[in-house]
Amino acid sequence: MDVQHALESHPSINGMCDYVGISRSGYYQREKRHNHQSPRKLRKKFIQGEIKAIWLKSLCIYGAGKITQELRSKGYKIAERTVGKYMRELGIHAVYLTPWTTTTRNSKFDKQLINILDEQFNPLRPNAVWCIDTTYIPVHDGFVYLTSIMDLYSRRIIGWDLSETLEVSNVIPLIEKTKHSRHISKPLIMHSDRGSQFTSEAYNQVTANMTLSYSKKAYPWD
């Protein structure tokens, strides 16, 4: 689900009250008259709307602790365990995104991953250098991975794949499809970071006719 769309579809009740110029207590009274619900149930419904709005605004990253802080900053008196309970009832939870980190590898293996591109970002022809990369995209119920291939000559994305895991099995068909569509006839450099999907045996096989280049260790931005 698109997060911006979700935000627009689930505005906070507090925000809606401000927009139409009524107080929260006025909202409670109106709901009570129309729905015949107890004040406790109305307050719970109101708070759950606020919780979901805060969660969506955080791109689904906030958990009960951060949401509790946000609610308290708005004047609500609520316990973190209550927020956690309401989140479970709503079926939402914090999405923990793992940042890029270096991992321990055999030093001999590291020496095999050479940065052939060496920050030479202006090739002289198309299909001389491709760059492949994977990006996290937060969605309503978690996150997905966008793997894309860019021709460095034109700076255009020439292939992409959206998947729910980082497994190399999602990368192989993308490379095969892109190779087929581009009709490669000359030597090609494939540049990537040192992610496990780009250093696997399967990746080496599908790029067997290419020259592999890797970002420097602990420096994935080149």
UniProtKB/TrEMBL annotation:
It comes from Limosilactobacillus fermentum 28-3-CHN. InterPro entries: HTH-like_dom, Integrase_cat-core, RNaseH-like_sf, RNaseH_sf, Transpos_IS3, Transposase_IS3/IS150/IS904. Gene3D superfamilies: Ribonuclease H-like superfamily/Ribonuclease H (3.30.420.10). GO terms for molecular function: nucleic acid binding. This is Integrase catalytic domain-containing protein. It comes from the Bacteria. Involved in the transposition of the insertion sequence. Pfam families: HTH_21, rve. Signal peptide: none annotated. Residues 122-222 form the Integrase catalytic domain. One of its GO terms (biological process) is DNA integration.
